[in-house]
Amino acid sequence: MTHVLQNWQTEHELHATLEKLLQDKKYLAAFRAFLQSEFSEENIEFWLACEDFRSTTSSGDLHWKAEKIYKEFIEPTACREINVDFHIKEKIKKSLEKPSLSSFDEAQRHVYLLMERDSWPRFLHSDAYLSLKHKSRTLCTYNRVWAKKESSISEAKPKEFGLNKTMPSLIVEPLNTEQFIMDRDDRKRNKNIGKNFMCRLQGMFSHSSSSESRLTLEDTQQWSQSLERLLESKYGLATFRNFLKSEYSDENIEFWLTCEDYKKIKSSFRMSSRAKKIYEQFVKAESPKEINIDYHTREQIKRSVKSPNLHCFDEAQKMVYGLMERDSYPRFLRSDIYRTLLENLAADAAKG
User: Fold this and answer.
1) Nearest to 309 by CA among 259, 261, 275, 258
2) Of 64, 169, 200, 324, which residue is 20 to 30 A from 215 by alpha carbon distance?
3) DSSP annotation string for 273-296
4) CA–CA separation, 346 and 352 (whole Å)
């Protein structure tokens, strides 16, 4: 039990600060995914871009990287504009004429403090963090107990393990589940999170000419009717994609959307190059976003991309849609991200 407590303390100390979490690839990935699910990832992405920028050794690279960071995060109407004051933005703009490794230092410090005060505490209470921490502790506890049992076995006398003897059972001390259960009241904390999510979601389509110009409670409630209804809504699709990204399981929706786009191709040359790209990205064994389809379908696509047509991926697309309908879609309907939207839209509707 002492080992279990020591392990918990070590794990707790390791991620007691934002600084230490950012040094751990596993927890950093979870933090990024958590922020993406809230449509608030611009701060962590800017911070990481600055870290990469400061490791630049070539003066030529320094120039184009500085320009890229400015256009993506700093300039007004940037696609990922960070929240820093005008004075800092102007200093960065002037520094672009002759950028140095410290060009973004002030803005990076400012963004770090914003994350430390706002995003970081929320992440510590999120399901993503608690689940990851639980898995890590359980694995480390198991390894410690297993090592201890192995040690006792190796030191025991051979006669103790005759046919009439049994191996000692591997008993892991029960973990304190209270550490991993999020209080219901805490889940409903800070309604600004939901408001911020809604604003960002609507901001994505603020310049759209579509008739679905505003996110409404009625439309959002209809997402629960079917997966088809959800994917027909631009807001529903965007929310569903972010939910899947937060779970590291977005390959199916990305493949489905890619197939929808592929079926609109009219040029035979473009169709050929696009089919090969889809195969390399989603279908080929060990591909970056390999989808879960059977061997027969995979081989059929492999043959068809040599002389592709608009229906090359139809069977795989149907299979992937079925997987989402049975698995991802029901989880989405139970998720915090969907419930938060409904609660905030209902509150707005009640106010009139």
Assistant:
1) 275
2) 324
3) HHHHHHIIIIISTT-TT-----HH
4) 10
pLDDT, tens digit, for every residue of 130-155? 777 766 655 555 455 555 555 555 55
Q: State the Cα–Cα distance between residues 62 and 301, nearest whole angstrom.
A: 43
d(CA 35, CA 340): 15
Give me the pLDDT at residue 36, please.
Answer: 81
- The pLDDT of residue 60 is 83
Q: Helix, strand, or coil here: 213?
A: coil
Instruction: Decide if 310 contacts 265 (C-beta within 8 A).
Output: yes
Structure tokens at 284: 């080929």
| Structural tokens at position 26 | 């596993």
The residue assigned the tokens 């990481």 is 48
For 46-104, the pLDDT digits (tens) are 999 999 999 999 888 899 999 999 999 999 878 788 888 888 999 999 999 999 999 99
Q: Which distant-in-sequence residues (6+ apart) come within 8 Å of 336 by Cβ?
A: 127, 187
Closest listed residue to residue 167, CA positions, set 145, 188, 152:
152
Sequence-distant (6+) residues with CB within 8 A of 70 are 92, 93, 96
